[in-house]
Amino acid sequence: MAPKAPREPVEVIEVARLTKYYADRPAVLDVSFTVARGEIVGFLGPNGAGKTTTMRMLTCFLPPTAGTARVAGFDTLSDSFEVRRRVGYLPESVPLYRDLTVAAYLDFIATLKGLAGAHRVRRVGTVMEECGVSDVRNRPIGRLSRGYRQRVGIAQALVSDPEVLILDEPTVGLDPRQVVEIRALIRGLAGDRTIVLSTHILSEVSALCRRVLVINRGRLVSDDYTSNLARNLQRGLVLDVVARGPAEGVSGTIRGVGGVREVAAAGSGDDAGRYRVACAAGEDPRAAVAAALVGAGYALEGLTARDVSLEEIFVQLVTEGGGTDDRA
Amino acid sequence: MTARRRFAIYRRELAYFFNSPVAYVVITVFLVLAGYFFYNLLGYFNLASMQVMQSPFQARALRLTESVVQPLFGNLAVLLLLILPLLTMRVLAEERRAGTAEILFTCPVSDWDVILGKYFAALTVYATMLAMTAVFPALLARYAEPEPGPIVAGYLGLFLLGAAFIAMGVFFSSISDNQVVAGVATFGCGLLFLLVGWVAPLVSPALAGVLIEISVLEHFAAFAQGVVDTHDAVFYAGFVVCFLFLAVRVLDSNRWRG
Phi first, then psi: what are they for B106, rounded to 5°? Predict the structure, then answer.
């Protein structure tokens, strides 16, 4: 097959209304997004949200039921070979041939990817260095630790020096030290390369990606920069208030302050007197709340604003945004 | 390009057979049983030879080809039916079960590359195993004068028979991610193809003709008699192509069903 000239797209990945049904159960529904060259994009969602299915469609492992996915300007269905040549993929379970040695395995994958001769030998050597597996090159993969296997998995995805790297849960099942190492490795791979990685761990997204796509129950719930996500989603401040006095009176007083959306008693027993105060978006009624409580004669013992963590945003998105295409 | 990929898959598959105990166990079991059959047949032939010494004119009826060589090929054919499913049951089922199919099929390889690479790897193991049984005719040749024709034809027949069973095994390995299912289905279907001619006398002549024509045993019988007929060779070739084609179709349909 003669190599075709790519269209030189700015957007390396273009996904339009991508849909996948398993029998009559939808796994991915009407998902659209684009990824520009050199971006590291995180695919975030709970288990079973459709992340893996989307990645399998991007890598030509599964054909979409409807919609299209283009990688480097080539359609995953009609130009599957061109796409596969340009994509490196690490599936979630890191399925490697356990009986082969690291070097033999990487050489096998490199051959399948179309590398030949001295170039192949050089690439295999380079990725083994890059991924830190040179010292176990002659060991069968089945005898390697989980961390090393993960590195070999990333090495096989990288061996053809692909434009696009797709990593499904690249740090799952690793111990904390290995997680740090693998993240550093992935960060080092960026540059010209476009990386899409999926995870259900939020800290991973903030550690690696500038942009995050949140997917839940097969639908794209949010597509935004990691930093914007926190800002835009913040439905106002959340205050922790500790005040002595009858619960009715205290919550009534707080509720009376402008900019307060909701008050809930957060403690009981020894912990009584704790309240969780949700504020309207854009409002900061901390001073007013303090003044109102003191003015009403209650002893104010504490008042702190809580940062909304990515975890909370995520839960928010996933619980409320589940159905609609709610681009925050 | 595609030849190199196909060869890489072939080499990887062959490496699996010999990195794991599979090839060694299958070859050993096959050779031990084949040796037992050979010993048995030759032992009885010896006994019969001793007896006919008393009445020399009976000795004409006692011939090495009919008493040892042909029964041996018949026994080996049945043994293959039991042994070859063990060789082929994992070739695709295991890729799916272990998830390695996901990396394999996201490389720029075609389904034919995968099927042919794996098929020829299993065929190579089988050819190795068959070649090792050459020690039996060699022993015969050392102590007697067996006719070379029937031996060569018999080996060709066995090779084609095995090639057909392996293609069927590859097909059944493509339909399930469970190796036991693949193995049992291969064995059952193989036995049916071997013995389908049995019912020929019971059914209408037209159907009987078809049954005889698709009976693997009928086509093998000619080879075992020392007759090499292109008609039989074409049957086996068609059998192989048909099952490999089906395997490729299954791979594609699995993809669409997800």
Answer: -100, 0
